[in-house]
Design a protein that fits this description.
CATH superfamily of the largest domain in chain A: P-loop containing nucleotide triphosphate hydrolases
Shape of chain A: globular
Strand content of chain A: 15-25%
Largest interface: A-B, 35 and 35 residues
Structural class of chain A: alpha/beta
Radius of gyration of chain A: 20 Å
Order of helices and strands of chain A: EHEHEHEHEEHEHHEHEEEHEHEH
Largest sheet of chain A: 6 strands, parallel
CATH architecture of the largest domain in chain A: 3-Layer(aba) Sandwich
Oligomer: homodimer
Distance between the termini of chain A: 22 Å
Number of domains of chain A: 2
Number of helices of chain A: 11
C-alpha cells in the first residue's frame, strides 16, 4: 500500500476518498484489474467492495452496501472493472444509483462517460453528488515553458506499452519511503490516478499541451523531494511515441528507469514492429531527455519476468545486470536486486 | 496559387469554397496574415474581400458585400484576421450576421469559437447556415496502426516553429506540379487548412490520436502520387516535440526537407533553449523517422533568409549547400536553387 501524495498542485483535483470498489457483474478476473490495483496499492483507502447480484469476482475486501460503506467513511464508489467496449451496461445502473442515494460520489474511467447517462446525471444533480471521470484532464493546462523546476524527478520509460511502468513507479515509491526518502507517485493514467487519488490522464490531453501537462504534474518541490512519474508508451511506438516524448520533455527527469518485459519481441498490437534493445532505449531516452534536463541519467532496468519461473528469472536478471553494467530487478519479485535498483534510483 | 487537392479521405471535410475574405476592423497588416496567405495560395478560390467600416488593411482583391460575393459564387466567408487574444469583437457581429443572411457559411480559426457566440449560433440555426471552426479536428480519428501506406510522402520538418514549413510545402507542391508531378498539399494547421480547403489541425488532436491523425491525413494513394505534408514544431522543442514526433511517425515520409531561419539561434519564445544545428536536425529526424519508413531520406534544406538582403542570402545559400552537401534554397526567393531543391525532393 502507498500513502497518498503530499500536497498536489492547486489545479489538479484530489479525488474523494476512501473508496468503495464496484465490481459490476463481471465474472472474469482480468476485467477487474483496476479493483485489484486499488486493493494492492491503496488498500488503506478502500473500505470494501460492492457488486451486482451474480458477480463472480472478489478483491477479498469486505462486502458492503453503499449505505454501510458510507457509514464506514467512504466518500465515493469507484467503478473498478472494465468490460470489452468500455460501456456501462444497464444492469449496473441500480447499483450506481444506490451509491448516489447513499451519499457517495461516482468515479469512472471507462470509455463511456458517466455524465452521458441521463439517469445518472439526473440522480447526481438531484442529490448534489458528483460524477467524476478520471479520463478527463483538469482545466487550465498551459503550453510547456521548459523552465527547470526544483526538486528531483524519476520517470519510468519503456521498450513498449504494458511492460510495468506504473508498477515499477509505485514499487520504487514504496521502497524509497521505506528507506526514508521523501517520494510521491505521479500518475499519468487512469488506474494510477485512482491509486494516487490525483494525476493527469496524459493520453487524453490535447497534443499541444501534453508536455505542459507533464510540467504541471510534477511542480516545483523541495530539493530532496522525489516525484516518481508513471511513464507512458515508448519513444519508438508507432502510435504513442509523441506522448512519450512530451512526457519525457515535460517531466525533466533526473533519473530514468527502463522497463521491459522479458520475452517480448514486437510492439504489443503491432507485430510488424520489432522492439528496440534495452541499450538503445536507454540511449535514446537520455539523448532526447537531455534537452530539458542535461543531468538526466539511467539508474537501471526494471525487468518484467512474469512469464519465467523463479530460477529462470533470477538467472536472467543477473545476466542482464552483468551485460548492461547497471542494477536490474523485477519489482514484482522484489528482493535484494530490487533494493539495489531503488537505491541506485533515489540516492 | 495552388489548385485544390485531389480526393480527400472520406472523413476529412472539404470546406465550402470559393471564399469571401473578411478583414474585420484591423489596421495592422500583421494581423491579416491568414487573408494574405489565402490571396497568395488560394487566390482563384477567393472572390473578394469584405471588412467593417474603418478597416485599414486590404488584400487587393475586389471589395464585395456578402450579397455580391454570393452572386459571384462564394459559399463561405472566412475570418482572415486575428487580433491579440483571438477574440471576436462585438464590432464584427453585424458583418458576420450579414454574411449568414446573404447565404454564406462562416469559417473561423480563432481561439474564440464562432459557435460560442449566441447571436451567431441563433442566426446560423435560423438560416440553415454553418459555423465552421478549422481548429476543430474531424471526428473518427483512430489510434495509428503503423501500416505502411502506398504513394509517396514528403514532410517539411524544422529546427523550430515558424521557420517556413508551411510555405516550403506549398512552394514545393506548386513547383512539383509545374514539373508535372502529381502532388497535393496536406495541411496540419489552420491557415494551411483554409488554403487547402481541408486538413487536420494536428495541435488540437488528443495526444494518443496525433499519429493516427497524421496517418488519416495522407491516406493510401497511387504509386507516383506525392503528399507534401505541412510540418509542425520541432523534435527538440520543449513544448511541441511530441506533436512533431507523432507527425513524423504517422506521415511515414519518404523525404524530409529541413526548414530553418537564418540567424535564429534560440527557440522562439524559449530563449534558454539553443537551436540545434541543421545536421543534427537532419540526423535526428532520419533516425526517428526510420521507425515507420526505413527508406526515409533528406532531400535538402529550406532556408528562410527574410532577414538578409539578396546578396547575403545568395552567398549564405551557396555556402550552406556546399557545407551540407545537399540542395539549399529559400522558396520565397525561388530561382534555380529552389528548382534544384524541388527536383531533389520529388524526383
Amino acid at each position: 500500500m502507498l500513502q497518498p501524495a503530499t500536497a498536489a498542485p492547486g489545479t489538479i483535483e484530489v479525488l474523494p476518498q476512501p473508496y468503495l470498489l464496484f465490481l459490476g457483474d463481471v465474472v472474469e478476473p482480468a476485467y477487474a484489474k483496476t479493483a485489484f490495483g486499488l486493493r494492492d496499492w491503496a488498500g488503506e483507502r478502500c473500505v470494501g467492495e460492492f457488486a451486482c447480484t451474480g458477480a463472480g469476482v472478489s478483491t477479498g475486501l469486505p462486502y458492503l452496501s453503499p449505505e454501510q460503506a458510507r457509514a464506514e467513511g467512504a466518500r465515493s464508489m469507484v467503478i473498478g472493472v472494465a468490460n470489452p467496449g468500455g460501456r456501462i451496461p444497464p444492469a449496473w445502473l441500480p447499483a450506481l444509483r444506490q451509491a448516489l442515494e447513499a451519499g457517495l460520489d461516482l468515479i469512472g474511467g471507462m470509455h463511456a462517460r458517466l455524465e452521458a447517462i441521463d439517469a445518472l446525471r439526473r440522480a447526481a444533480d438531484r442529490l448534489g453528488r458528483r460524477l467524476i471521470d478520471v479520463r478527463q484532464p483538469p482545466p487550465g493546462i498551459q503550453v510547456a515553458n521548459g523552465r527547470k523546476r526544483d526538486g528531483r524527478r524519476l520517470l519510468t520509460v519503456g521498450t513498449d506499452c504494458a511492460v510495468g511502468k506504473k508498477y515499477t513507479a509505485l514499487a520504487l515509491v514504496r521502497e524509497g519511503r521505506r528507506l526514508g526518502v521523501d517520494a510521491d507517485f505521479r500518475a499519468t493514467g487512469q488506474t494510477g490516478i485512482l491509486i494516487a487519488g490525483q494525476g493527469i490522464p496524459l493520453d487524453a490531453v490535447v497534443a499541444d499541451f501534453a508536455a505542459g501537462a507533464a510540467e504541471m504534474l510534477s511542480p516545483d518541490a523541495g530539493a530532496e523531494h522525489w516525484d516518481v512519474i508513471e511513464g507512458q508508451g515508448s519513444l519508438v511506438h508507432p502510435a504513442y511515441a509523441g506522448v512519450s516524448l512530451a512526457l519525457l520533455h515535460g517531466s525533466q527527469p533526473d533519473v530514468i528507469v527502463v522497463c521491459h518485459q522479458a520475452g517480448r519481441d514486437t510492439v504489443l498490437g503491432h507485430p510488424g514492429y520489432p522492439l528496440p534493445g534495452i541499450e538503445e532505449t536507454i540511449e535514446l531516452n537520455l539523448r532526447l531527455g537531455r534537452r530539458t534536463n542535461p543531468r538526466i541519467r539511467c539508474a537501471g532496468v526494471s525487468l518484467n519476468t512474469a512469464k519465467l519461473d523463479a530460477a529462470q528469472a533470477e538467472r536472467l536478471i543477473a545476466a542482464e545486470s552483468e551485460r548492461l553494467g547497471c542494477p536490474v530487478a523485477d519489482p514484482m519479485r522484489g528482493g535484494e536486486a530490487f533494493r539495489r535498483l531503488a537505491q541506485a534510483c533515489l540516492r
